[in-house]
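fold description:
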Amino acid sequence: MQTVDVQQDFSLPVDRVYAYLSEHENLGPLFGATITRVRDGDSSRNGTGSVRSLKIGPLPPLQETIVESVPDALIRYRITQGGRPVRDHEGVMRFTSTADGGTHLDYTIRLGSDVPLVDRLVAFALTRNIRRGLRRMQGHV
């Protein structure tokens, strides 16, 4: 199993950062993917049960499902379709307020693979893309 752990601070309040990152279509630049909404959540558009499709380059698309959503605090998702040879992929975004009224994002992804080294390569690419995407995102929230 590999772990991606990205920390990012924003000068904006938690509700704004959460609202931006919970919107599926805004995540494309973070993952270097084309993202399409498949289904709205059970009780809110981007909440628990919502599903997004990610298409990364020539790879087959995969789907991620939001399995837990706590407004302004937490988003947990899992790959629920496609994604092979990656397995056990789970992402967690935790949002907390900073002393100056901004937001601290703790973004962790855990994943494995049945194919040697694939999980390491995917973790490396995700870390690089997410860090770059979050820095770029600062001006768009």
Remarks:
- The mean pLDDT is 94.
- Helices lie at 14-22, 28-31, 118-137.
- Residues 118-137 form the longest helix (20 residues).
- The beta strands are 2-10, 34-39, 51-55, 62-70, 74-81, 86-97, 103-113.
